[in-house]
Amino acid sequence: MAVILSAKTKTAHVNMMTDTIIANLPADALRSVVRTILTVEPSITNILEKQTRLYLSKTADQRIDELFASTAERMAPTANFNLAQQRLRSAIGCGMVLESFPMLENIVDESVKLDIGNAVPRLVELDHCLAAIDGDIVQASTAIQKRLLSNSGSRSLSEEEKSVMTALFDSLLRCRQRWLASAHDFPFERGTSVLAAILSRESDVETPVEENSAFYGDLAARNDPASLETFKIKDSDLPRLFAGLWQLSSPSWGVVSQSQMFEQFSEYITRGFSAFDMAGHYGDAEIIFGRLRSSLPRSMDVFGATKYCVFHRITVTPTVVRANVAERCQRMSANHVDLLQFHWQDYNDHQYIQVLHILREDERVRHLGLCNFDTLRLQEVIDNNIDVVTNQVQFSLVDARPRFRMGEVCTRHNVKLLTYGTLCGGFLAEKWLGKTEPQLFGADSTPSQRKYFEMIQTWGDWDLFQTLLRTLKDIAIKHSVSISNVATRWVLDFPYVGAVIVGARMGVSEHTEENLKTYGWRLGDDDQANIEKVLEKSRREEVFQVMGDCGSEYR
Asked: Domain NADP-dependent oxidoreductase, which positions (predicted)?
């Protein structure tokens, strides 16, 4: 079906050769080209979103038939499921989040029709699809929460918002009752919990996490103390590897059931990953973390770092600021926040100093840090006698901007960096050694890989990156570790770095043992020299000049 979109255009004409490109470029390549165009000219993002909304609105009446098939032999998703999910995710992405809730409700209702009460086997593909929808519910709910932000903090749900969310929630409760009655794990547990919290209907959902007696005693003592490295912020000794939970913000990083997530959380903690980084906009990361930590007999042994992010203009008052801290505590099932990292989008609005003064006086904030602040504003914060202990920024072999200015200020004032992007979305690994450039929209690609591939292109090119991987591999063999360990160690060896945040795709992929091999050794002078020979061939200075200081890419 051809859809002619109504929009105010300057001309209906597109150059014939340009039209030929659009008509013939493979879909994955076209997506990659569009993404590159948007990074070069971000101002046209609004056009993409508007045209997507027009398309979805004009095709809203298109019928999508049966999503799941249940026969005597098996239960599985149909080809229509992918079509329905593509429309759903496009709606969430372009701002039609309210319209996405009836779509989600329809999928949940369809899943109720599955014959789950008998011995018919469910394909793994079906479980994956249901877990993906659970992630979509979380993402749509998070998008609603972002809509609630206002100049005065956060508004209440409108009647329309409450209506569509309640309809989905009630559908989930009916579905949940049927699945649990048949002794099956409910596949939409995460989404149900998030909606219950937003609608203040937690009492309708009994989701206890049983106390885990396996965690009795000091968690750190379960590992050889000599093998774990720590750094200190005030009275807290923290591991130099944090587990980052940003992947929970979207099912694009992979999905599993909530029970599988809890299992891997437990594994992380017992292996020494006792510090976790999250944020309110990382889907249900705070909620899942809070539920798991509160189930531990010694919950104080697990450290939770989250964020207070101000992306839009607000009128700062103590009430507004303290309300956000209260929300963080409530979602994390705690009466305090171990480390609250503050992000402020618009430097032209100097109210960020006022916010930090209020946070400094809040007794629920144990430690105060920053997130994606540049060197100039970090120094300004310090000059205003605000005691911040950390700043979370991007830092890797490919993006070494903290070396230019940030490191000196951090060293002088004892501020530790918590770094992300250190493994470049997984590219700094054996998996990519000797490989051709990635298909950015392939089945296994992630948003992180799309982001960091562009970083690699800015830093150098794929050939130079392969040279870097070969150099790191030689060093890895020498120390009996992996390429990822060497890349992480390179960042950790800077004295102003407190910890590297390693992305944790809970239940999807598991690298606990490998990551722990980052501890207990250091790069020698010859290792550093060999790495530097590659880095000096890159455009690292240009990365700083083009992207700006730390965090500038978000502004």
From this structure: 241-535
Distance between CA atoms of 492 and 487, rounded to whole angstroms?
9
- Length of the chain in terms of residues written: 555
pTM: 0.84
Helices (H), 213-272: 258-270
pLDDT in tens, 79-88: 899 999 999 9
For 238-261, what is each residue's pLDDT tens digit?
A: 999 999 987 776 665 556 667 777
* Residue indicated by tokens 């770095």: 497
218 band by pLDDT with thresholds 50, 70 and 90: very low
Residue listed under structure tokens 């937690």 = 202
Give tens-digit pLDDT for 434-479: 999 988 777 677 788 888 998 999 999 999 999 999 999 999 999 9
Distance CA 459, CA 462 (A): 10
Spatial contact of 488 and 423, defined as CB atoms under 8 Å apart:
yes
In DSSP notation, 140-196 reads HHHHHHHHTEETTEEPPPPHHHHHHHHHHHHHHHHHHHHHHHTT---TTHHHHHHHH
